[in-house]
Structure formats: structure tokens, C-alpha cells
Design goal:
Chains A, B: GO terms for molecular function: diphosphate hydrolysis-driven proton transmembrane transporter activity; inorganic diphosphate phosphatase activity; magnesium ion binding; potassium ion binding. Two copies of one chain form a homodimer. With 797 residues, chain A is mainly alpha-helical. Chain A has helices at residues 8-28, 35-76, 83-117, 121-159, 166-213, 225-265, 278-299, 310-339, 358-383, 388-397, 401-414, 416-447, 450-472, 477-520, 530-571, 584-598, 600-620, 625-666, 680-722, 725-730, 781-796, and strands at residues 343-348, 352-357, 668-670, 673-675, 739-746, 755-765, 769-779. Chain A has two domains: 3-730, no CATH class; 739-796, no CATH class. Chain A has 21 helices and seven strands. Chain A starts with 7 loop residues before the first helix and ends with a helix. Chains A and B meet through β2, α11, α12, α14 and α15 of A and β2, α11, α12, α14 and α15 of B.
Chain lengths: 797, 797
Amino acid sequence: MESYMIYMPIVLAILGLIYMLIKRSSIMKQDAGDGKMKEISDHIYVGALAFLKAEYKLLTFFVIGASIALAGVATVVESTSYLIIVAFIIGAVFSAVAGNIGMRIATKTNVRTTQAAKTSLPKALNISFGGGTVMGLGVAGLAVLGLTAFFIIFYQMFMGGEWTNTTDMTLVLETLAGFSLGAESIALFARVGGGIYTKAADVGADLVGKVEAGIPEDDPRNPATIADNVGDNVGDVAGMGADLFGSYVATVLAAMVLGNYIIKDMGGAIEDAFGGIGTILLPMAIAGAGIIISIIGTFLVKISSNDAKEAQVQKALNIGNWTSIGLVAVACFGLVTWMLPETMKMEFFGEGLKEISSLRVFYATLVGLVVGGAISSFTEYYTGLGKKPILNIVQQSSTGAATNIIAGLATGMISTFSSVLLFAAAIWASYAFAGFYGVAMAASAMMATTAMQLAIDAFGPIADNAGGIAEMSEQEPIVRERTDILDSVGNTTAATGKGFAIASAALTALALFAAYVTFTDIDGINIFKAPVLSMLFVGGMVPVVFSALAMSSVGKAAMEMVEEVRRQFREIPGIMEGTGTPEYDKCVDISTKASLKQMLLPGILTIGFPIVIVLIGLLIYPDNHKLVAEMLGGYMAGVSVSGVLWAIFQNNAGGAWDNAKKSFEAGVEINGVMTYKGSDAHKAAVTGDTVGDPFKDTSGPSMNILIKLTCLIGLVIAPILGGHSETAVATNQNVEVIKEISVETQGDRTLDGTATAKVITKTTIGDGETLVKEKTFKGNLDEVTKQAEAYAKSQKN
Amino acid sequence: MESYMIYMPIVLAILGLIYMLIKRSSIMKQDAGDGKMKEISDHIYVGALAFLKAEYKLLTFFVIGASIALAGVATVVESTSYLIIVAFIIGAVFSAVAGNIGMRIATKTNVRTTQAAKTSLPKALNISFGGGTVMGLGVAGLAVLGLTAFFIIFYQMFMGGEWTNTTDMTLVLETLAGFSLGAESIALFARVGGGIYTKAADVGADLVGKVEAGIPEDDPRNPATIADNVGDNVGDVAGMGADLFGSYVATVLAAMVLGNYIIKDMGGAIEDAFGGIGTILLPMAIAGAGIIISIIGTFLVKISSNDAKEAQVQKALNIGNWTSIGLVAVACFGLVTWMLPETMKMEFFGEGLKEISSLRVFYATLVGLVVGGAISSFTEYYTGLGKKPILNIVQQSSTGAATNIIAGLATGMISTFSSVLLFAAAIWASYAFAGFYGVAMAASAMMATTAMQLAIDAFGPIADNAGGIAEMSEQEPIVRERTDILDSVGNTTAATGKGFAIASAALTALALFAAYVTFTDIDGINIFKAPVLSMLFVGGMVPVVFSALAMSSVGKAAMEMVEEVRRQFREIPGIMEGTGTPEYDKCVDISTKASLKQMLLPGILTIGFPIVIVLIGLLIYPDNHKLVAEMLGGYMAGVSVSGVLWAIFQNNAGGAWDNAKKSFEAGVEINGVMTYKGSDAHKAAVTGDTVGDPFKDTSGPSMNILIKLTCLIGLVIAPILGGHSETAVATNQNVEVIKEISVETQGDRTLDGTATAKVITKTTIGDGETLVKEKTFKGNLDEVTKQAEAYAKSQKN
């Protein structure tokens, strides 16, 4: 009995967190510079903490409100435990702590990176990437720790730490969903609020500083510049961290739910060396292994030459990344073949039960790893410097802003082609290999390298900040040159990181969607039912409206920022001459307040819509909970499909505009003429970039949270809709249901030692129609009896 | 027996066409002006005909190719008749003729409107609206004529003009689908090609003329100006006409298919005064009545004062429109209660058979009429001058093009909210009233006023052209002022017309979608099956990529135009002084060739994707045609949901930018300062308008065709997937199916004179599971036998 395996992920998570602390203290020991550098860095640190403090205050109210709502659910639904509230709160706290760790380390690492860049590029990379590593391990470690710990606790409480049946395990997992919901709710506010914050500050600072006052970016005379740098941390570090924390937890949870469903398909119990829950433990084990693998990967990210360019830095990151992915594949092979029964039975909709070898689950995980890699390449193609789409936008900039915008929009739109086909193929393939468990395991494998992905991703804004500090503290040009190399690579990793985030969100949403159907016990989601179809339309609309709200929020907040900066330029004497000190904190305050205020409406939209749909559904069909469950499922599908499309469209259009603008810095050839910064074409490209800013940093990335949170809310609501199904249908006016279930076990063993059991289900549906279903089991007497009883029970529900 | 009713729609259609001819000759008798006016008008006429000729040439190849493909389908599928090819070709020809009529009358009416505007505004309205009326009646008359004539012919050929059974009627309607497919295919090319044509010419003319050379719009010195005016006719007249022609035919067809399905639900035959096909005839009857009602409506569109302003003109149009809608409601009440059985039985998915009174079908038609009205109001709100969204965009223009673009995009995106909720509610409500027949009848009622809608819509571009001719032929300012009043109203009706077109496309697509499910005989479309879900994603992606292609096409074609105009400015001596004559035909030629070339890729995408999905599906699941049918259904749903969203987004964003720019003409207040044309804010608004041009006139309206054509192709492919289902499932390796159907009729009448029949269906599904379905019929012996046999037959398929 390898039942100690249940503790393995916790051990690995703790190891990861210990390594994180060591790494953290080694970074903190680095020289943090002095004088102006330190002062600016402190401003950023204080600004970031101010945002976090204000955000936590708001979130406290939200968590209290949501807890009350969950208590309501737990009161109404008999099978929902009050413990879901505890899990929810801890999930929220863990997510907030993960974001906090990331933001603190990022705002401490930035100045140390600047300081290191004074002498050595390798050291600067080492420190900035080290900061990212701390962030990544904090997120991944806390996610695995929290999820596994709660699982063990609930497994003890509801099942006494031993396998009983799938229904009890469903209770465990339903309660565990609270942890995921807590994490994802915080992610909503961190991602959306952070996204609004960073772009309000960025756009506001640019509009007055660069355009009106004609001072360069990151100029210390600009009162909004600190807010701008805080924004990098709030949006790109804390927002991204919370996003992936949420994905990570939700993916593993969904895989566990579907693992439980396999046990149901196999007759309600399996014999394995892991206490009969190997299929449920596997995703956690892979997540745990991923932490250690990510640490190994981070060791490989280093350069030796002080004269290295972008290519070498990128190569170092790639080596670390691809090694991690390769090691995860190896780990998946080992864990899958070790932990899963050699062959499993899985129900395929419309195709009945199928025998699935464990190797097919491994193939499904490979699908996930391929998706993670391929999506990054696609993103790089559509947003990468020197690639055809970017050159086309540059070319179109020569005829003005309008053609630049059209080209950028078209690039974003057409980029959905390859990514969506990839997703579609991945869903299909991983399902063909191992059903929806395969889809969830594909997502889990992809997410296993989350720590590594985050390290690569968070290093970008740290380098960006380091450059800002170098500029503001007026360092020698070589310092800025070095940080610019890191920053430039960081821009690419930011784009590919967004690709990873949306791929993870899409697969997570699908896994959650599958888990939802199993929780509600419906026979699938039939969009030929008009109420379901209409909810598919409504679901499709929500990401579009959400994006519009997020974009408008940036506009509104940026306008406030513009007015404040104008006021300071007007009222503070000597500010332009560098003798007067701008009131940075006022700008930080505006961004903080505006972002928190503006994120409310999108938040309400996300959380409110599923709830309203269920309420209206129950009002109109009080006796047909299954139809309401299907309606909510249709809504979830609509949000997912449309959300994925709009995420790719907005991220890639924004990224493409950004790099089209950047192309002018080194000079580009348009119709045979070299064109540089300051040209009309460049101005057109700047317009495009400004349009793209909220696209790629606010509304685009928010889609991830929207689709995941929607599916999670569905999962939490599921027991309300699923639990009452029997009574519900029984009282339906149009359909009368009578169920008679009898089990006849023919005890007489035949010559070859097999016994037969038959289960008959009789259902009378209205209008003189009856349905009789017979199922026969053959095999060993005990086994057959067990299977038949489990089947009968499943038919009763 | 009111079986003469089958001929009623034809008679009404012919009456409409006769009135059209009378109206047409009365317009042609009007004074067409002289000298330069006539010359310019002739240029436009010749240019428009040149486009039509080139288009027809290309379409001939397409029609031949598609006919061969249809012959292939007819060969493979036993139940598909070769007559579908005839129907297809005639459908294509009718659609082309309808477009031809519209374009010829529009290009003859424009100059007559200019001439009339010299003396009288009421007369100018009378003539321009008269041209629209000819167009509207041509489209509606030919649609009803063609559809009804083919129905009668096929009804005679396949059923001998008498009711036999629903299977035979399905054959009739499947063959009739060819007519609809032909119409919609032409619409694809007319809409997309026309959309590319008009915007390539418009953007090209503006970029060189207005921006580079600094000459006003419609200046005769600009070589692209004739192409620009031709474009108005090609895109807004012929394109819109073909679009609505296709919607009209498809909607009525879908309603007929679902009417046949009701007869199936009612046991395979109904007794009524209309030869037992009342439910099938009803949509045709409403369409026929709509033609006469539209004629009545057009009588009401007139103004008396020569000093009338936009408001009076708009009011005259509104009176005509609302009267028509009101009369259709009355006609629906009369026809529904007269032609339908008082109560019908309809199958509701998951809810069984329900008794539906005919009055509920009437309620469903009211839902359709409300949608038609409401969608126009929504569109007007988001794109109307002086409304909040426009004022917001104007305000945002003050900080530059970027904020103008963001505001416009956000407006388009947020406008999906109300429209999608309206659609969702309409689907739900009309389905709740009368199932999918209700949805199709809602669409039919809405489409009944097509002639009137088109008259209102086509009058806009005619007035626009009239203004252009006035400008180019240097008429007195009062002439241009009068045509400007008409043009301005025409801009509003163009926006609301687009709302009507997308609403009709959405409802048509849904009705076709429902018809598809009945044709393939699948049990709905379950998106919980991974292959179906992945196709939902793919379907969602196609409208986005289609839009990107259409937008890029405009960019490419416009660049060619720019180069040609530059060349002429350079090489033709005296062109800017007005002494040299520009080579207008060269520009017309460029637009023509470019649009025809560029529309190929989007066309291939639309037609190719469903076919590829079916081929891949059959390759992977050769024995499970039903799953392939569900996959295609998932694709159709994805295209519809995403297409509707992107249509609303693009149409409204484009319309909003357009009117934000127009706001500057009369002057707007920004931050307390009156701002006019030529200001920086106005320049920013012009940039937004240029971005919006392809949105609202190319890619946005193309979505209508994309979603309708996708669903129609599905419908035509349906027999391939549906017909073989029995054998298909039987050879599936995982599921073994044995069907035993026995009918036992208990002949002994009981005391109350009723007999009982029982049908038992026994299906053995793999893994030792069998399914026995019993259905009992009670009633009159003959009736019961008939019902039971029909039911048994339906179970066999």
C-alpha cells in the first residue's frame, strides 16, 4: 500500500516553499543601491503596498458577503457542507498571500537588479529571474499545499480517510471547490483591478507626460511615473500570479472530480495501491512533481557573458523552460503508469463504456504539453518583432493611424485561427485518449510547470521596473542598456506568458465544465433546447460586454490621472525644472481608488450572471432542475467559447501593436525608406499601441478569469441543481416518472465460474410511453453483485 | 377545401411584381436631367453594370461547380433528388435578377432624384423612395414567386399534389432547400464582394482625394469618385437586396420544414381545409400577405412641405413602416387562426409532446415583430446623433485618435448586451409559445415586411448618389441641401436596416438550425461530447477570421486604388485644374477586379469549413454518422452565436464612429468649447470613421450571410448524415443495435369506443444493456392504427 502518496504533494510543496524562502533571503542580501535609486524603489514599494492594502480591505467585504451567500447555499442544499466556507476563505487568503509574496519580492528585486546591472548583466539576469522564481514557487507551492491539505482534511472528515463510495468523495470534492472559488475570486479582482490600475497609470502618464509635456517615459518629473511603475507590479506580477494560482488549483480540482467519476464508471470502487483513489491523487502528484521540476529548470537559466544580447538571454530562458516541460513528460509517464490501474473503464457520451489503458492518459498529458508549447509559438509569430504580421502593421502605419488600427485589429482577429484549431484539436484528442479525464489531465500536465512559467513571466516586469529606476535615478547609459536587454526579452515572455495563461484558462474551463456535468448528473447539454440555446447566446455576449467595461474603465481612470498630472504641473512650482517634487502618492492614490471602483461592475457581471440565470430558470421551471442545469451549462459554454476568442484577439492585437511601435526604435524599412521614431508612421503606430494597451493588459487577460470563475461558480451551484433532480422530475407536470429498480443476482455459477446479475430500470414517461432499461453484468459473483448494486444506485440518482 | 390557398402566395407575388413594373415605368418617365448630370449618372450606371457583368461571369463558374457538387450529393444520397440542382440554379438566377433589378433602378433613380430636387423636396423623396420600393418589391416578389412555384411543382412531382406522409414532404422540402442555397450563395458574393467594392473605392478615394490632394468628397477631378458612387449601389443596394432575399427565402423554408415536423408529431397527418398542409402553407401565406401590406405601407411615405427637415422625412418613413408592421400583426392573427388546427401537438425536447393552441403561434409571430422593432431602436440608440454613446465618443476624440478608437470599440462591444438579451428572450419566448415552429414563425412574421424594409433601406444610397451627382455636376447649393436631408435620413435607415438584417439572419439561422436537427433526425446537439464541443469552438472562430479577411481585403484593394489615383494625378495633364478628364473606368475596373478576387477566400472559408468538418468527421467516425451530424450542428451553433455578436459589434461600432464624425459638421460642445470640422478632435474622429468603414459596410454585414449560408449548407448536407443512421449505428464497434418493432392493435373497442395500440421498440446497446421503449395510443381504431404505424415508422428511422 503506497497510501503515503497522499502526503507526497504536500511534502513537495513544502520543499518548494523552503527553497523559495532560501532564494528570497539570498536576493534580499543583494545590494539595494543607495540615494535616489533607493528612494524611488521605496516609492514603488510603498505604492504597491498601498494598493494591496486598499484591495484587501475591499476584498474582506467581498469575502464576507460571498461567505454569507455560501452559507445560504449550504443551508438550502442538504449535501453541501458548511466547511465550504472555510475552504473558500482560506482559498482567498492563500491567493492573496501568493500575490503579496510576489509583489513584495518584485518591488525589492527591481532596485537590486538595477544595482547589479551597474556591473554585470549575468548577475542582473540572475537577480531579476530569481525574483520571478520566488514568485513562481510561492504561487505553485501555496496552491499545492492548500489544495492537498484540504483534501486530506475533508477525506478524513467525510470518509474517515478510507474509500467508501463515489458519492462521499463527491462531497469531499464539492467542499474542496470552495478553496478554488476563493482563489479565483481574488484572482478576478487582482487581474481586473490590477489591469485597470496599470493601464490607467500608463496611459495617463503617457498622455500628459510624453504627448503634452514632451518629457520622456519614466521621467521623475512626471507625477504619474511612480504609479506607472507600481502598475507594472500590480498588473503584471500580482495579477498574473493570482490568475495562474487560480488556474492551477481549478485544473487539479477538476481532474480530481473526473478521477472520481472514473471510479464511478468502474463500478464504484477500484483496487489499487493508493487506497483506491489513484485516479484522484494523480493530478496532485503531478502538480507536486512539477514544483521540483520547475526548481531544476530555474537552475538552467543563466548566461555567462557580460556582452550577451537578447538572443542569449532568451535562449537561457528557453533551455530552462523546455527542460522543465520535458521532465514533466517523463514524470507524467512514471506517475501515470505507476498510479493508475492498467486498464480503466470510462463512460463516453453516446458511445457507452470503453476500456482505456493508463498509457492513454499519458498520451493525453502529452497533448497538454504540446498545447502549452505550441500556443507560445503561435503567440510569438503574431506578436514577434520582425515577423510578417508585425511588418504588415508597420507598413500600414505609413498611411496613417486608421490603417494601422485596421491592420492591428485584423492581426488579432486572424490569430484566433491557429490557436482555436489547436484548442479544438487538443480537446478532441485528449478526450479521444481518455475522456474528459484526459482533457483535465492534459490541463494538469500543462500547468505542472506553472512555477517555471511564472518565473519567466514575472522577470519581465521586474526588469521593466529596474529600467525605470535606472532612468529615474539618472544612472549611466550602460545600466539602462543592460536592463533594456532584459526588458526586451521580458516583453516577449509577457506575450507568450499570456498565451500560456489563456491556454491554461481554456483547458481549465473545459475540465470544470466536464466536472459540472458530472456534479449535476445531467445527460449532457443539449443546445437544441431553446432555453439552453438562448443561454449560449447570453454566455457568448458576456465576455464582449466585460471587455467593453474593462476598456472603458481604463479610459475613465486615465482621464482622472491626466487631470491630476495637469493640476500638479500647474500648481507645483519648479516641477518641470526638477526643483519641485511631484506628489507621486496622489497619483498612486487615484489609480488605486479608480481601479478598485471600476472593477466592481465587471466583477458583478461575472458573479451575478450565473446566479441570475439559475434564479430565473428556477422561477420558470421550478420542477425541472435538470433543464436549469443545462441552461447554466449552455451559458458556461458560451462564456468559454467567446471568452477564449476575445482573449486571443485582444492579447495578440495588443501585443502586435506594441511591437509594431517598438519596431521603429531600431528603424524599419517602409517602401524602401528607413523610418524611425518621430516619423508620421511612428506616430500612427503610437496611436495603435495606445489602443492596444487596455486590450493586452486589461480586458484581454481578464477573459481568463471570467471563463474560469464562471465555470467554478457553476460547479459550486451544481449541487443545488443536481441534488434535487429525482423529486424535481417526479413532480414535473408533463413527465411522470416512476422508477422501479430490481436487482436479480443469479447466484449459480456457470461452468467457467462466472455469475450474472441483471438490473432493470423502468421509467414511465408521460403520454403512454415507458422506458425499460436492462443491464447485465457477468463475472465473479462478488464482483458482479458489487457492480450491479453500484449501477442500481447510480440509476436511482 | 380551401386548397386553392396553395396558389394564393403566387398570385400575391405576381401582383407585387406587376405593381413594381408600374412603379418602375412611372419613375423612368421622370426627367433625367441633362448635360453633365446625365453624363455622370451614365458613368455610374455603366460602372455598376460592369461590376454585375464581371460578377455574373465569376458566379457562373461557381454555380457550375456547386451544381456538380450537388450532383455528387444526389448520387451518394438515395433520398436526394437531382431536382435540387435545378432549384439551386433557379435560386441563384432569381437572386441575381433581384439584385439586377435593384441596381438598375437605383442607378436610374439617382439622377432623377437630383433633377427633382431642383424644384421640390417632396418630389425628390417620392422618386428616391419609389426607387427603393421597386427594389423591395422585386426582391420580395421574386422570393415568394420562386419559392411557392417550386413548392407546388415538387409537391406535384413527389406527392402527386396530395398529402401522403411526412417523409415524402421532407423530400419536397429538402429539394426546395436547393432554391434557398442558390439564393444565399449569390448573396455571399454580392454582400462580401459588394462590401469590399464600396469600401475599397470609398477609402481609396478619401485617402488620396481628401487627405493628400485636399479636394472635397465627390469632386469630379478625383478619378475614384465614380467608383465610390458605383460602390454605394453595389454594396448598399445589391448587397443588401441579395442578403434580405436570402433571409426571406431561408426563413420561409425553415418554417415549412418545421411545419412538416408538427404533422409528424401529430401522428403523420392532420385534417384541415388546406389539404392537410396548413402548417406548411402558413409561412408562405404570411409572406404573400406581407407583399401587399408593404405596398400599402409605401403609399403612406410622403411629405407635403418643400421646407421639410430630416424629422418630417423620418416621420413619413416611420408611419409607413409601423403601419406595415401593424398590418402584418393583423394578417398573422387572421391567417394563423384560419389556417392552423385549433390545437396542435408538438414535441418539446426533454418535455415530451405538448398540446399547443394555434393562438400561441400567433403570439410567437408577435415576438418576431417586437424583435424587428426593438432591434432598430437599440441600433438607433447606439449609433444615433446626439445620443449618449455618440457624445461620449465625441468627447473622447478630444484626447486624440487612440481614445476615439477605444471609445468606439467599447460602444460596439457594449451594444451587444441589449441586442443579445433581446435575441435570447425572443428565442426562449417564441419557443415556449410554439416550439421551434414558433421561432421560425417569429422570423417569418418579421420578414413579412421585407419589401417595405428594403424600400426604406435602398432609398438611402439613392439619395446619397443623388447628392454626389449634384456635387459633381455643380448644381446650385439648394439641390445639394435637399438631397442632404434625404441622405442624412438615409444614414439612419441604413443603420437600423443593418439591425433588421442581422436580426433576420439570426432568427433565420436558428430556424434553419432547428430544421437541420429534424432533417438529420438526431436527438439534439450535446456539447458535452468533446468532438461537438471542439466544433463549437471552431465555429466560434470562423466569423472572427472571416471578418479579418474581409477587413484586410478592403485594405489591400484600397491601396491599389490609391496607387492608381496617384498615377492619374501624376500622368494626366490638367486633371487638377479640371481641364483633363480622369480615367474613371480604370478605377471602376480596379474596384471590380479587387473585390471579386478578394471575396474568394472568405467564400471558400464559408463553404469549405462545413464540408471539411463532415469529411473529417466521417473519416474518424465512419460508423457514427449521428455524431458527425452533431459535430456539424455544434459548428453551426458556434458560427451563429459568434457571428451575431461580431455583426452587432462591428455594425454598431462602425455606425457610432460614422456619426461621431458627422457630429462635428454641425459643431459639438467638448468641455464647454464648441468644436467643428477641421479641429484636432474632428481629425481624430475621421480616423475612427475610417476604421469603422470596413466594420460597418464590409465585415459586419457579411456576418449575416456567413451564419445563414453555414446553416443552409448544413441543411443540404443533412440527408447524407441522417439517411444512413440505422446501418451506421448497427456497424458501430462499440454499440450493437438490434431493433424489433412490433405493432399490436387491440381491435376490441372498449365501452367508450376507443381502441388501443402499443408499439414496442427494443434496442440492444453494447455491454449487456438493452433499452425497451413502449408507447401506447388510445382513441378511434382507424386513427390509432394510423398513429401507431407512423410512430413505428418514425422509430425505425
